[in-house]
Write a structure and sequence with these properties.
4 domains, alpha/beta, Rossmann fold, 32 helices, seven-stranded parallel sheet, about 45% helix, 23 strands, about 15% strand, eight-stranded parallel sheet, about 800 residues
């Protein structure tokens, strides 16, 4: 059951986790509570030190604990794991300071199956990070089949069988007891293998959960612990309490989430259609107070989640699955058995029965297979033609091929794409695209019943993508073929499939409508980040203005740095613009490149670690090499790599003597990384990190923004500004925000590029909040060294 509510409401000060809030916090909490009661949203840009996490939690919990409020829970969404930990810590602080008569605020952190499945965590029973989803679904399906209508047994029998296996080992006379599976420091009641009933493999953890769910009852009744007085439940505690009892931690997590007062997750849990449809749908309603943390990432994150696509290899697998459903009937009609061909274990009666129940004809399945086969041939033709045109001798050395895009329409002139036109000419109309969705679903159902393999069927994903291809418009969505560099030794030599994974992609260029639609389903909440300005742009591209037009109140707050101004120096260095045209080839140290190296070297004389952000990884490599030749301290280079390599690099940077770390402003080290204390003395940003504007997809996004938010939009800004420049400046601001993280920290923040320093046709100074424009005074390169020396000398004098 959910945590008990106080009998009467006390003002939010009773929830707030510290003695006294900052003035900004108090103002923000008041605003959030007030606007949430009107089913609206508060948008907060708050610099580090504002206390945004405690602000949002306090406002949300206050609404949940008020018996006169309609809110039942707080849902926190963030894209940064470190921020998730901060919310967990602040919730613990709140629980540690509640009035004595209040019960703790119940909380839950949502994670993926791989993090909670006992088999996956311990790497047993053929389950690991790569197989956990397929294995889990297969085991669950077989467990349900054993106990469902017409099943062979009951959940109670399955649980008893699994537990008796352990007892049987003890009774066998063995001198050693059974080796129970342990996880999260707790033994489970089962062996490190899945259980079997007759010849059918099943999951004893899931069987236990099903056995504990009362008929027609709430799944919360199957949870083996009480939320009351427990406070926040993190991943390790969830697994320990669930698996130790013998039940499925992931199922328990799903049962608990509608009842927890605070649920912590990521953007997938609210904006990914599949995740919401299968797991977190209960959270998406008017009783939820939603908190979107790191909200400057809301637009790009949701754009990815509401885009679609399918690989050519998945099309191949779907074609094979369609064939395996068709063949049993073809063999029967020809007087053969399914054993005469590669038809899997499906039989004709099963196929006919399932198709009849789904109201799908065999003819429709055949036509879908033909369509998928012809589509693969057309993709093959287009990829070959593109490579022959752009690199005629590509077959001679496949290792030269890089990632590539093949647009299926003019990115700057929206219209019907070439793949749709090809289908029309080939006789495949809109109904053919749409029909693939229902056909894909029934094919997966037939094969799941006929075959024992724990695999994710390709047909449903293919069917969904093909249906979406014809449903969506051609301005907001851009269609293309993506060529992702890979290597497949099993593919034929001298074919593109050996070097590439091709994918038909449906990119959502303007996700604001999807964001607004989903936010509109919540009761209200807070969207917050350290970098949201210009607010007018943020409101427009995230659909908040559309919500306001529908009567949902939208309030704004902007809070600057509250720490002592004397502890920081901020420079907008007036050196030549670090643009593609100005900087030239990386092998030449022309005046633009020299000016940027000189500026970084001046700041790198600071007594401590220095972080340098460049527009991309290639420029970061160039800068690191140039600095290594000039500086007498170690220079580290961050390259695009996995999490383990990044963590090792951070450890090296933070340890020992002062160093310089050079990275890309589009990497992971300039956002969400904690550089508290003396870990960082300065942060330097060279250039404005605008993404490659020559990419067809980028040009399509710019065009879509021009049409949606250009001269006809409320801001009257161009698509280039809205889609490219503003997000780039936010990236730069995130990087310089790494320096000052507390009231006692000191350091230098530098934006190195004339576009930050003075007004011009392509100046970005206007995109800085007013407080930052005042702090980042323009400085000439010849005065930068003086400014650096004066700042550090002033601190020594103190």
């Amino acid at each position: 059951m959910s945590a008990a509510q106080p009998l009467q409401h006390v003002s939010w000060q009773a929830v707030f986790g510290h003695d006294d809030p900052y003035s900004e916090q108090a103002d923000g909490i008041d605003a959030a509570v007030e606007v949430a009661e009107e089913n609206g949203f508060l948008v907060v840009e708050g610099a580090c030190g504002t206390g945004k996490t405690m602000l949002a939690l306090t406002a949300g919990i206050d609404r949940v604990r008020d018996p006169e409020s309609d809110y039942e829970r707080v849902l926190v969404l963030t894209s940064v794991k470190q921020q998730l930990r901060q919310f967990e810590a602040d919730l613990e602080t709140i629980n540690g300071n509640l009035p004595d008569e209040w019960s703790p605020v119940s909380g839950l952190t949502l994670v993926g199956k791989a993090d909670v499945c006992p088999y996956s965590r311990e790497g047993v029973a053929g389950v690991d990070d790569e197989t956990v989803y397929d294995r889990c679904e297969g085991l669950r399906e077989r467990t349900r089949n054993l106990v469902g209508d017409g099943g062979e047994t009951s959940t109670g029998t399955l649980v008893s069988e699994a537990r008796q296996t352990q007892t049987g080992l003890l009774d066998s006379g063995s001198t050693q007891g059974p080796e129970y599976l342990s996880t999260a420091g707790e033994p489970t009641p089962y062996l490190p293998e899945t259980a079997e009933y007759g010849d059918t493999e099943y999951c004893p953890f899931y069987a236990t959960f099903l056995d504990d769910v009362p008929e027609d009852g709430d799944p919360i009744e199957a949870v083996p612990f009480d939320l009351t007085d427990r406070g926040h439940i993190d991943t390790e505690e969830l697994v320990r309490l669930s698996a130790g009892y013998g039940t499925c931690p992931h199922s328990v997590m799903g049962a608990v989430l509608p009842h927890a007062e605070v649920v912590l997750g990521n953007y997938y849990h609210a904006f990914d259609p599949t995740t919401v449809g299968s797991f977190t749908g209960a959270l998406v309603d008017e009783e939820t107070f939603v908190v979107c943390d790191e909200a400057h990432m809301l637009e790009p994150r949701v754009r990815d989640l509401v885009s679609d696509g399918v690989a050519e290899s998945t099309l191949r697998d779907a074609e094979n699955e369609l064939t395996r459903v068709i063949q049993p009937i073809e063999f029967e009609d020809a007087g053969k058995s399914s054993a005469d061909g590669d038809a899997g274990s499906a039989d004709a009666d099963l196929v006919r029965g399932e198709l009849a129940d789904a109201d799908v004809t065999l003819r429709e399945v055949r036509e879908t297979r033909e369509f998928v086969s012809d589509l693969r041939s057309e993709i093959d033709r287009r990829v070959n033609a593109h490579l022959d045109r752009t690199l005629p001798d590509w077959r001679a050395d496949l290792t030269r091929l890089d990632d590539d895009e093949i647009p299926l329409r003019d990115p700057e002139d929206p219209g019907v794409d070439e793949l749709t036109e090809w289908a029309d000419d080939a006789g495949y109309d809109e109904a053919t695209w749409l029909r693939a969705e229902s056909v894909g679903a029934i094919v997966a159902r037939i094969l799941n019943e006929a075959e024992d393999d724990d695999v994710r069927r390709a047909a449903p994903a293919v069917g969904r993508t093909l249906a979406n291809w014809t449903r969506t418009d051609h301005v907001a969505y851009f269609r293309e073929l993506e060529l992702e560099r890979t290597w497949d030794e099993t593919a034929r030599q001298n074919t593109w499939r050996r070097a590439y994974n091709a994918r038909i992609s449906l990119h959502n260029c303007v996700p604001g409508e999807a964001i607004a639609e989903r936010l509109g389903e919540f009761g209200g909440g807070v969207l917050m980040s350290a970098t949201l300005e210009p607010m007018a742009v943020f409101r427009e591209v995230t659909g908040l203005d559309a919500l306001a037009d529908d009567g949902r109140p939208i309030e704004e707050r902007t809070y600057g740095l509250s720490f002592p101004a004397a502890n920081r120096a901020s420079f907008a260095v007036d050196v030549p613009k670090f643009t593609h045209e100005n900087r030239g080839p990386r092998g030449e140290l022309n005046p633009t490149r020299r000016a940027h190296v000189d500026a970084v070297c001046e700041i790198a004389r600071s007594p401590g670690n220095v972080l340098v952000g460049m527009p991309n990884y290639a420029e970061a490599a160039w800068m690191a090499e140039a600095l290594s030749e000039r500086l007498d301290r170690p220079v580290l280079l961050d390259e695009a790599s996995d999490d383990d390599a990044t963590e090792a690099l951070k450890t090296e940077f933070f340890g020992g003597d002062s160093k310089v770390l050079v990275t890309s402003l589009r990497g992971t080290l300039t956002e969400g990384v904690d550089y508290r204390g003396d870990r960082l003395a300065a942060a330097v940003v060279c250039g404005v990190p605008i993404i490659d504007t020559s990419s067809p997809r980028t040009r399509a996004v710019k065009t879509a923004y021009d049409r949606r938010f250009g001269s006809t939009g409320k801001g009257g800004r161009s698509g280039f500004e809205t889609a490219l420049t503003v997000p780039a400046v936010r990236k730069a601001r995130q990087a310089i925000g790494r320096v000052i993280r507390g009231p006692d920290e000191v350091g230098i923040r530098a934006l190195v590029d004339a576009r930050y320093a003075r007004e011009s046709w392509d100046s970005v100074r206007e995109y800085l909040p007013e407080t930052e424009r005042e702090e980042f005074g323009p400085v000439s390169p010849d005065m930068l060294g003086y400014g650096v020396d004066r700042f550090w000398s002033s601190l020594e004098g103190d």
